[in-house]
Each structure stands twice: as C-alpha cells, then as structure tokens.
Amino acid sequence: MIKSFIHYLILLGFMGVSQLQAQLGFCKGNSGSPIFKEDFGTGKGDSSLNQGSTTYRFTQGSPIDGSYKVSSNTNWYGWFITKDHTPNDNNGRCLIVNASYNSGEFFTIPISGLCENTTYEFSSWLINLFPAYNRVCGPSGNESANPINITFEIWDSTETLLLKKGNTGDIHGSYDPNWQQYGLVFKTNPGQESVILKMRNNGLGGCGNDLAIDDIVFKTCGDSIVIEDELKNRQQTTVSENNYPYSITLTALPDFTVFSSHHYQWQKSLNSKDWYNIEGEDRNNISIKNLKETTYYRVLVAEDAINVLNTSCHLITDYFKISVVDIIKAQKKEPKKTKTKITKTITNPKPYAVVEEKEIVESTIIDTQPQIIEKDSLPNSDVDTNLLPKTYKEIITVLDGNKVIKHKVWIDGAIGQYVQTNEKIIKKGDDRSDIVINETIYYRAVYGFNSVKRTYVIKLKSK
Fold first, then answer.
1. Residues 69, 70, 76, 80: what is their CA dihedral angle, to the nearest 10 degrees?
2. What totals of helices (H) and strands (E) does the chain contain, helices first?
3. Cβ neighbours of residue 224 under 8 Å, at least 6 residues apart?
4. What is the pTM of this model?
5. Three-state SS for 203?
6. How far is residue 205's CA from residue 349's CA, in Å, rounded to a whole number?
7. 144, 208, 351, 402: which could form a disulfide with 347 (CB 3.0–4.6 Å)?
C-alpha cells in the first residue's frame, strides 16, 4: 500500500512537470496588434533597465555572473557575435544576461492597459550566447557550457495571484546563433486591467547560462476566424469587367475555441495597409455591391461589444481580397525586316568562306496570351495600354558549302524569356573538323512562340 502511494506521488510529480511544460505555447487563433512591445532600442553604448526591473547588477564592462546590460555588443567570453532579433535594426540592442550561480527572478516588467476577461498571448525571443563548439568548461576545461533554463510567469498587479507560468527547459548551445521564440497564453480576470511579467533563471551559473532576450510582445488572442464568400472561396476571389456591376457577400466564421460570443466591425482597404471602418457593418456577414476596383476586407472581433473598437481587446482577422481585373488583348502588326550580308575569308590552314547574313525583325506588338491586369495596377491614362514591349529577334545565317541556318532569339515582354541556342562560333585558328550544332527554332504562333529542336553537322571543306 505504501509503495502504491509513493508511485502515485511520483506519477503526480511527472504530471505536474508535464503540465508545466505544456503551458508554454502560442495563440492558435487570430491575434490583434501588439499592445506592448519591448525591443530595448538601438545604439552603440550600453544602457540599464528601469529601476525595479531586475535584481541583477548593471555593468558596462564584461558581464560577470549575476549581471546584465542592454547592449548591441555580445562580443564577450567567446560568445556568439550576433545582432539583436528585431528586424531591420541598426545597432539594435537586446537584454544580455550572465545568469547568477543561484536560481531566481532576474527580470520584471509591468504590463498595463489590458481588458478584463480577455485572452492574451505573451511572447519573447531568447538565445543561448555560448556556442556549442566552445568547450572550455568543467574540471578538464573541455566540457560543454551550462544550458540556459528560464521560467516565464504572469502575475496579477498585486503579485499575489499567478495567472500562468511555463518553463523553457534546458536550452543548450548551438553551432550558429539561434534566436528562439517562447510564449504563454493567459486570460485576465474580471476587473483586471494589468499584469506583471517575471522571468526566473533555473540554470546553473558559472561557465555558461549566458543569454540574450529581445522583442517581448503582448497581444490579444481569440478564435481562428476565416472569411469566405458564397462560393466558399477563402482569402481571395477574382472578377473581370464581364461581371460588372459586381456584388458579393462575405461571412466571418469563428471556431469558438476561445470566445463564447462574438461582436464584429468590418473594415476595408484599397492597399491592405490603410484600413477604414465600414459604418453599420457589425454583423458576422457583409453584403458588398457595385464593386469596381480591387478591395480588401477584414473584420475586428471581440467577445464583448464594448471592446470591439479597443485595440487592447479585439482581434483582427486575415483579409479577404477581391481582385477586379480588365483583360487587355494584344494586337498584331506586320514586322519590319532588314538584311545585311558580310563575307569573310579565313585562311588557316586552307581558306574557306563564311558568309554571315543577319535579319532583324522588329514589331511593336506581338501575338501573345491576353494579359490580366488588376484595375488598381493600371498605368496612368497618358500611357497607351494597348502597346506591349517590343520583341527583338536576330537570325544569323552561316554558309559553307551547304546552307546551315542558326538562330539566336531574344524574347521580351509578355513571355519574359531569354533563349539562345548552343552554337560554336567559327573563327580564325579553329580546327576544320565537323561542327555539331544543337539548335532550337522559335516561330510565331497564334499566341506567342512555338519551338522545335534539331541538330546539324557543319562539314567544313577547303575552297
């Protein structure tokens, strides 16, 4: 009986660890815009955190155990020399930490402006600064460094109620700089509008357990919501002028994994960047009439109606794009042709004649497949949209006894290809052995060009 009880306690312990690890994760549905982001700024010098944010010592020199710096320089102790995580930063800074010998809290930051009864995602990027190949630790001086191990905790503003926590487990050194993202999903309680984020060191100090932190973000988390039209198209649909005037109904479909109720505000945009609320459109579907240009639609969603327009509370769906297009057909015009002939005599070791004949074919318009051009991407009205780019075609004729035709073809414009045959240029000093020509011949078709391939043998004979 005692053994069974002990086994039960051990099982509970393993279950507790598994549950702790499983609490790390990201929002599986749609999110809102970040309501808080800490990227630690930019600059070449070192800076410190706000007072009360850490129990570690600030240093402007080499960060010893139990110290930190906010810096763009990670060139210490054989660490990776790496940039911060924030994209497009110039001298971007991150929080650099040389963890203490003892485990414990090392970073705290309050987050305000939240909404009550709302689900949020916290995320942060971490990197183990000690390379795996830098084996300088242990009594032998040839052992791997201690891994980093961090616990994230989300507390209420009184620091008496733990809302969520999760542990990274051991993060060992890598062979290349490797920023990794970790996150937690939590929900605020009634009346709760702020939380406190804490990070705790669980690893061993000394040789290793050196890390950097960057891009701490809080944003709302909600259902996975897709937008579709009557034909079950998702994300986008395309219509042409043949469908004018065009009408469509879009519907937002939540999966109810997070929200128990849904309140909506539809938005539209002409460029997918600048968004505007559509007055009165606060249901899960929207009817759009007389659409004449490419337009994007999305919807703001909140669990409480009072929070729909609050950026700290709502989520934002992916947009649905309606592409409105015109079909522009190419027209055919007869090409202009010119010819020139050049005769050369080559005398090594015995003379033979080479005659080059060039034919230049130019046309302002070629036959090609109709182009589909979106209405919002049409050029200015002073441009003739019926004109397509020129096609330049050069034909080189080589004569030596038997007539052999070789082609070099440049195809521009709608086809967008460059094609050149595999050929050998006959020049002074070449051997007079037979030359094999692998040739691709392109010729006009109703739409664009067709091609055939053939092989020639050029037999060089002395005059």
1. 140
2. 1, 28
3. 28, 29, 30, 254, 255, 257
4. 0.64
5. coil
6. 82
7. 351
Write down the domain spans for the chain: 21-220, 225-328, 336-458
Q: Distance between alpha carbon 274 and the CA centroid of its chain, in Å?
A: 20
Q: For 327-354, write each residue's pLDDT tens digit.
A: 544 344 454 444 444 444 333 333 333 3
Evaluate if residue 82 carries a pLDDT over 50: yes
Question: What is the predicted pLDDT for the residue at 451?
Answer: 53
Q: Which two tokens stand for residue 37?
A: 């982001």
**H or E element: which one contains 68?**
strand 67-71
pLDDT digits (tens, 9 = 90+) for 182-210: 999 999 999 999 999 999 999 888 899 99
180-187/162-167 β-pairing: unpaired
CATH assignment of 21-220, among 2.40.10.220, 2.60.120.10, 2.60.120.260, 2.130.10.10:
2.60.120.260
Q: Which of 216, 122, 126, 121 is nearest to 180 (CA)?
A: 126
**Confidence class for position 326, pLDDT limits 50, 70, 90:** low
Nearest to 344 by CA among 423, 400, 394: 400
Segment of 134-138, 312-316, 432-436 carrying the highest mean pLDDT: 312-316
User: Is 305 in a helix, a strand, or coil?
Assistant: helix
**What digits encode the pLDDT tens for the residues 353-372?**
333 333 333 333 333 344 44
Lowest mean pLDDT among 68-82, 163-177, 350-364: 350-364
Identify the residue with better confidence: 445 or 276.
Answer: 276
Strands 94-98 and 210-220: antiparallel
Interatomic CA distance for residues 9 and 31, integer angstroms: 39
Q: What residue has token string 């950097």?
A: 212
Question: Considering only CA atoms, which of 275, 288, 284, 296 is closest in space to residue 32?
Answer: 275
Determine the residue type at 307.
N
Q: Which two tokens stand for residue 314?
A: 């709502």
Fold observed for domain 225-328: Immunoglobulin-like (2.60.40)
> Beta-carbon neighbour count of residue 265 at 10 Å?
20
